[in-house]
Amino acid sequence: MSAQMIDWNVAVQTGTRLVRPGPQISQEEAYEVVDELRRLARLAEGHVRDFTGIEAVGTEATQATIVDRPGWIRANVDGFRVVLEPLMDRLAERRGGLGGGPGGAVIQAVGSRVTGVQMGALLAYMASRVLGQYELFLPPDPSGNAPTGRLTLVAPNIVHVEQELGVDTRDFRLWVCLHEETHRAQFTGVPWLRSYVQDQMTEFLLASDVDPAAMMERLRQTAEAVVDAIRGGDEDPDNPRPGLIDAIQTPQQREILDRLTAVMTLVEGHGDYVMDAVGPEVVPSVKEIRARFQGRRDGGSRLDKAIRRLLGIDLKMRQYAEGSRFVRRTVAEVGMEGFNKVWTSPETLPTHAEIKEPTAWIARVVGTRSLQAAPPPEAGQG
């Protein structure tokens, strides 16, 4: 029996209850947004393939899933369960089980409900901010097969941001689709990438010297800090509360985290690079959109900044910037064919240090600047 440490049903119920409604538009307008996002996702797929040389494969490549905020919460809970429940079972086995002693089962059940409430509060906050994502981990379909992944776009958030920024709606929607379609191409067109990321995540959690209950307590503390911040509580700048990333305990974990951070910085930066670099012939107002969107990313109230730090969102923003800079500088130096050698194998991925210094990666992996004579890589293989 699974050692359930998070009551996922409570997480969904709490998240969908707390999440704010999206922008007020008519039902007819909502249908139009959904139809256009689906069409633009298909259009973006072709632009990404032509620009990057990586082709998304599989049946998932033909459609995007459009959701509202509660739909995003439910989808992410499904993904968390796929990844976390088997890991928690393995951690519990390693430590001789959970909830031992008198009343242990009751304590565990109460704790899982509390953690479910806190997880739901975090998901409610995030659900109003995420524009889209490529979901790597999905429950098996009715045939028992695990899907490769799913491209999901959160329609009300896209509408909210385009209204807030005052940008061309078609251009903005296509721009967002380009980023997410790049992720679909990466994770379906590069055969080993998805399993590599999953293996690193698994290794990271299993390398912890913290027992599962302590890990859940850290999650609870972080969630409580976020909820306090949302309710208006000020964080002491001289004594900030620990965020999720502060749970790293061991040198082995730090080493794995460096590898995981490097690959996620690469894929996020690649997505950011592609959405801008396909050019104004595809998204005519791309420069205006990027300038306004970046101003929104960099801004925010003290409350927003505190929550971003607690949840590790600031780290993700740095990943976009560092990764995009790595891709831009590498493509400028050795061209797209040279850059695509990054997808050859896990050994050709840049290290954390090479992300910051692309010439070191070029020297190690490409080895020569006379790439024009080299045959182009096969799509998705680098």
UniProtKB/TrEMBL annotation:
Q: Which controlled-vocabulary keywords does the entry list?
A: Hydrolase
Taxonomy of origin reads: Bacteria, Bacillati, Actinomycetota, Actinomycetes, Streptosporangiales
Q: What is this protein called?
A: Putative hydrolase/uncharacterized protein, coenzyme F420 biosynthesis associated
Q: Does the keyword Hydrolase apply?
A: yes
**MF terms per GO, please?**
hydrolase activity
Q: Which Pfam families match?
A: Zincin_2
> InterPro entries annotated for this entry?
CHP03883_F420-assoc, Zinicin_2, Zinicin_2_N
